Amino acid sequence: LPALLLASPVLAVCALVLRRSDGPGVLFRQERIGAGGRAFTLLKFRTLRPDTAHEAATRWNIADDTRMSRAGNFMRRTSLDELPQLWNVIRGDMSLVGPRPERPFFVAQFSQAHPGYAARHRMPVGLTGLAQVQGLRGDTSIEDRARYDNYYIDHWSLWQDLCILLRTAVCLVRPTGS
């Protein structure tokens, strides 16, 4: 709750910039899979517009997607598009640290193709995680992400969470994009 309150001026500016550059509908809602395979609605700032609801659920987004505006590109590069997920943390859908949540279509696909992927759902999903601070974001190896996520779960500690949060803060100062 304190993080959301501290971030509220940034959230307001982001919403205003997106509204002015891309029109109405600054928040994006998407079904994701959390702990125990439970579905929840993830919130993000809208950085691009899919053609259909099916496309939003089944299309893998890439860094230089032509559907992304300049404002959306900036939001993604700086991870500002993820800030509304603080609400998901408050609601209990997510934790600050844990494996990143994925869409049901991809969870089913990755669970069949990559041993250990489904085991990531033993713990609440997070706003950031060990795989992300290792650079495994966007179009990177799903197998490597699952390996880091499962390592994180198997070796969980409060100290590790604090280190991941600190490394995330450093990554935000030096954004590389997703």
Largest sheet: 2 strands, antiparallel
Q: Would you report the number of β strands?
A: 4
Number of helices: 8
Beta-strand level of the residues, as a percent range? 5-15%
Mean pLDDT level: 87
Shape designation = globular
- Radius of gyration (Å): 16 Å
Compact summary:
Helices cover 48% and strands 11% of the residues. By secondary structure, the chain is mostly helical. The chain has one domain (2-173).
Topology:
Elements: H1 2-22, E1 27-33, E2 39-45, H2 53-58, H3 70-78, H4 85-91, E3 95-97, H5 104-113, E4 126-128, H6 130-133, H7 142-154, H8 158-173
Parallel strand pairs: 3-4
Antiparallel strand pairs: 1-2
Protein described:
With 178 residues, the chain is mainly alpha-helical. It has one domain. The protein has eight helices and four strands, in the order αββαααβαβααα. 48% of the residues lie in helices and 11% in strands. Helix 1 (2-22) runs antiparallel to helix 3 (70-78).
